[in-house]
Amino acid sequence: MHVEALFVDDHPEDLHHLLHAVSQARLDWHVRTAASGEEALAMLQLQLADVVISDMRMPGMDGGVLLNRVRQHYPSAVRLILSAEGGARGFMRATSAAHQVLGKPCDVEVLQRVVEETLHFQARLRAPELVDAMHQLGPLPSLPRISQKLEERLRDEYATLNEVATLVSADPAIVARVLQIANSSYFRRGSEVLDMQTAVSRLGFELIRSLVLTRELYALLPSNSTAHAEVQHDNEVAVQISEVACFIAGKQANQRELLTVSVLCNVGKLLRLMLPVPVPGNLPDALIGAYLLSLWGLPFRLVQSVAFVDEPASLMTDRADLDALPSAVLIHLARCLFSRLKRAPDAVPRWGAEEELDQRLLAHVDSLQLQAWEDGLRRRADQSRGDN
Question: Where are the domains positioned within the chain?
């Protein structure tokens, strides 16, 4: 993939190292370099860049100030900060200006993956005005009901991390932001973070408390907003769909990851409601949401699941293992089942004629299995009503 990149660092040896690494990796990148924020802005005025990668600590205009100006004047650019700084406060300042914060020194393979995965999803959008608007976004809006409960719990000295994670795990705005921070170079240690329990444990109670009480995790969705009821309904449905997905997966179900994917699938719809520019009607919400999640550096496994939730057969191999279906497939099937369960058995079409279903899945999961799952869910629902 061809990339127009601008590296900004006041240390010539660091710039040389990056240039050498890109050259050795034989990347199709055209790289320009600047030794200061002022020089970088002057260069952008002459020629735009797909990505601006800046050191954080520089004399005069530092990386945070530079990237905030890039956001204002050149919003199409992806903004990355390379930082060797310690301290959560400095890290959070960097995240307010950059889409992602990477460690310094940064392995060129990591840099390539971050940049090219993001630009790949950007190219699929084919909507420059939409991309510009998304690049200027701050935190996503959260429901006041959830944020108020969260603040109350965090002020309680007896609150536990598990309680906090459970409380916010159905809110796409908070889930996306917490996973962005937990998967950053500063906090990530070893494996990727794919669920809220792990993320909250990784960040720690005091940092979560600080982020929430200073409103750095989310913005507030006004309680009188016409979208309020819709967002609340979508959040509740996402939890129910994840439960259906767990039923399909059976004993192999990764409940936490399925809940995360189901909730993150609502990010695109949330963006459609809040962006200041019209979103093309032919763009799927899943793709819009996946781009923001990729831009924020969430694990590719989660981003891919969100991106393909409407067409998950694209992720299937020739031989499907029903005990290890991809999360996108499980959530897609769960959505179809959830929709069918709201209707009487004699009011739903046969599975081969189900409009919501990615029909290509029938080559991997036959209609008899789909019907068996539906029958099992209906029996469970009948039993639950009988118990009540």
Answer: 3-125, 141-220, 228-387
pTM: 0.93
> What is the rounded distance in angstroms from the CA atom of residue 328 to the CA atom of residue 216?
30
Give me the residues paired with residue 80 across strands.
Answer: 53, 100
The answer to whether residue 340 scores a pLDDT higher than 80 is yes
Which structure tokens are listed for 361? Answer: 């899945």
Q: How many CA atoms lie within 13 A of 97 on its CB side?
A: 23
Strand blocks (E) in the chain: 3-8, 29-34, 51-55, 78-83, 100-103, 141-142, 219-220
pLDDT classification of 87: cutoffs 50, 70, 90: low
Is residue 262 over pLDDT 70?
Answer: yes
Strand segments, DSSP code E, in 301-367 are none
Which residue's structure tokens are 């539906």?
A: 374
Q: Are strands 3-8 and 29-34 parallel, antiparallel or unpaired?
A: parallel
Q: Is the pLDDT score of 187 beyond 90? A: no
Omega before residue 105 within 30° of 0, cis: yes
Q: Which CATH superfamily is domain 3-125 in?
A: Response regulator (3.40.50.2300)
With tokens 């598990």, the residue in question is 162
Adjacency order of strands within the sheet including 100-103: 29-34, 3-8, 51-55, 78-83, 100-103
Distances (CA, A) of 213 to 6, 94, 141, 177: 36, 19, 15, 15
Exposed, middle or buried by CB within 10 Å (0-12, 13-18, 19+), for 355?
Answer: exposed
112 class by beta-carbon count within 10 Å (0-12 exposed, 13-18 middle, 19+ buried): middle
For residue 205, the one-letter residue type is F
